[in-house]
Design goal:
The protein has 27 helices and 5 strands. It is mainly alpha-helical and 583 residues long. The strands form 2 sheets. It has a 3-stranded antiparallel β-sheet with strand order 3-5-4.
Length: 583
């Protein structure tokens, strides 16, 4: 039976989460428009118009769900989730590793297209997250899905990891059937040539797999093949990748028996190849390879104790100014080690201080910071300075520097017995750190420090007492050491040989000397050099100055045209758009 109620808006009323299902009738005295802006006040004579307010977003969600008799929420539809299905979706780790490796290929292609090395460096930085998941099967799957079956580069990569039997999933150009225009476009897309950067990147992953699994001989052989391929290609987009290849090649040779410092070690055999690579990098202005190979050569010479050859390399080569910060830190460390062995402690201290400041702060670089700090502490002791105690309290250095703390305490007090006990107790650690021969030089410094402490404590002390306290062999040796300390300016004292005693002079005010000013000058110089290096490391948009010059030239040309039109009378004040008042 039809209802007598007038039909207003469609068959069914529109739901509203606020006002239910009732329509809203707006009369002449209706209020102002609704907050939503959709309901409007309509007045046409004396007629009434009914306006339906549309539902707001999320109105159904704002309404509380109905509850059953037990008080539980009723869930309609197939949205009920069991406890077993509520877990996260399982991801295949092999597929994830393959996808992560292949995601770097567009970065390498973009680096080649835009000629920007930052994209290649971004791909290299992702290796740390891929490294733990590398297996021959994953690498073989990436190669099979990336290269066509006729690619010689793919066959050589698969042969290196002993997976040459893997079948390729990407068809070759001769195996594709082209039917119609759409398949022809697909064929062209599939036949896109693989750039050499992808070959070298996969080669670096294979090198890392060999290095982590200690397959050193195979890694050295494969690295030699990679370097030959890089040498045949003259591409600047390969610079950062080739530097990494040479780095791993040197690591392989260092771990093959006989180990350095044996003269028959493989590190000696690769020196001509590294020197040839350095010469080629200088001619090609390959900054990344140049800086890396210089550091590797210094490491190579120091591993076999060829200090003279390392010094000649430093004097005959110029380290590139635009090298990466990590390579600069390594170069300064090796340079500081060379200068310390050559007894040039002041220069060694400057280089090692700069190396520790440039060392990365990430936990992965903690080993380099510890090694550089150990050598820096020994050099400071050889210079006659006592390192700050705060250095030994750093969380990343406290455990590694424990033997050196005992050494510093013995040198600071001037106790020769404690110094010798520290060497006997931690001699193996010092040999492993490469600081043992430098620490043996500290014996004279311990004696000088002891004499200095006695000169400050006593105004007059006999040579016999000095000989007993420092555990020297005879009074003549004590007399010789005291005379040398006076001559070197270690102590302010005078020696009476007839009576056999040392008389100390009065200690003056240190602030009346030039020592505070020199220390302040050194700190200012370090801050200024840090500022200059920070400015040099800033990046600016390429060719931005040319754009600014072009805009300036266009502005000057417009000004000339405008001035010429004003002179010719083509422009007046109204055309210029300004309001000028007569003067």
């Amino acid at each position: 039976m039809p209802s007598k109620t007038p039909h207003t808006n469609g068959d069914k009323p529109v739901e509203n989460g606020v006002n239910g299902t009732k329509d809203v009738e707006m009369k002449d005295d209706a209020p102002a428009p609704l907050k939503g802006g959709k309901g409007k006040k309509v007045k046409e004579g004396d007629e009434e118009m009914t306006v339906v307010v549309p539902p707001s977003k999320g109105s159904k969600l704002s309404a509380p769900p109905p509850k059953d008799t037990d008080g539980d929420v009723v869930m309609d539809g197939p949205e009920e989730i069991n406890g077993d299905d509520a877990g996260a979706v399982q991801i295949d780790p092999v597929a994830k590793a393959v996808a992560d490796i292949k995601s770097n290929f567009p970065l390498l292609e973009r680096a080649v297209t835009l000629f920007d090395a930052r994209f290649s460096l971004r791909a290299l930085r992702s290796i740390s997250s891929i490294r733990k998941r590398l297996t021959p099967d994953i690498l073989a799957q990436v190669i099979a899905e990336t290269y066509p079956s006729t690619s010689p580069a793919a066959k050589s990569l698969l042969l290196a990891i002993d997976r040459d039997y893997v079948s390729f999933t990407k068809p070759a150009a001769t195996e594709m059937e082209i039917d119609g225009e759409s398949k022809g476009k697909l064929a062209k897309k599939e036949q896109k040539e693989i750039i050499p950067e992808v070959d070298i990147f996969l080669g670096i992953l294979i090198q890392i797999y060999f290095l982590d699994n200690k397959i050193n001989k195979m890694g050295a052989y494969f690295s030699a093949q990679l370097t030959e391929e890089i040498h045949s290609l003259n591409r600047r987009t390969l610079d950062s990748l080739s530097a990494r290849v040479y780095f791993y090649w040197s690591l392989f040779c260092e771990q093959i028996a006989p180990l350095p410092p044996s003269p028959s070690s493989p590190v000696v055999a690769i020196r001509p190849d590294l020197l040839a690579a350095l010469r080629t990098a200088v001619l090609r202005k390959d900054i990344d390879t140049q800086s890396t190979v210089i550091v590797l050569l210094l490491r190579n010479y120091l591993s076999t104790s060829h200090i003279a050859q390392a010094d000649l390399l430093v004097s005959h080569t110029k380290f590139p100014e635009n090298a990466s910060n990590n390579q600069v830190a390594r170069y300064l460390y090796y340079l500081g080690r060379i200068r310390a062995i050559q007894l040039r402690y002041t220069e060694a201290h400057e280089h090692l201080t700069a190396a520790t400041r440039k060392a990365p702060s990430s936990p992965s670089a903690a080993g380099f910071t510890q090694t550089a700090t150990k050598l820096l502490l020994v050099v400071e002791l050889l210079m006659g300075d006592i390192p700050e105690r705060a250095t030994f309290r750093l969380a990343s250095l406290e455990r590694a520097l424990q033997p050196y703390l005992l050494l510093v305490q013995a040198v600071r007090v001037g106790m020769l017995g404690e110094f010798e006990n520290a060497i006997k107790q931690h001699g193996e650690t010092f040999r492993r750190d490469g600081t043992y021969t430098l620490i043996l030089r500290l014996r004279q410094n311990v004696i000088k420090t002891g004499i200095r402490m006695m000169s400050l404590s006593y105004s007059r002390i006999s040579l016999r007492d000095i000989c007993i306290r420092l555990k020297l062999e005879s009074e003549e040796s004590a007399e010789y050491i005291v005379a040398k300390a006076i001559r070197d300016g270690v102590i302010e004292a005078s020696l009476d040989r007839e009576r056999g005693f040392m008389k100390s002079k009065e200690v003056g005010d240190v602030y009346a000397t030039r020592e505070p000013g020199e220390a302040f000058h050194d700190r200012i110089r370090a801050c200024l050099s840090l500022h200059d290096e920070s400015v040099k490391a800033m990046r600016f948009p390429m060719n931005q100055h040319r754009l600014e010059l072009k805009n300036a030239q266009e502005a000057r040309e417009r000004e000339r045209e405008m001035a010429k039109e004003i002179q010719d009378g083509d422009l007046d004040e109204d055309d210029l758009g300004g309001e000028f008042e007569g003067m």
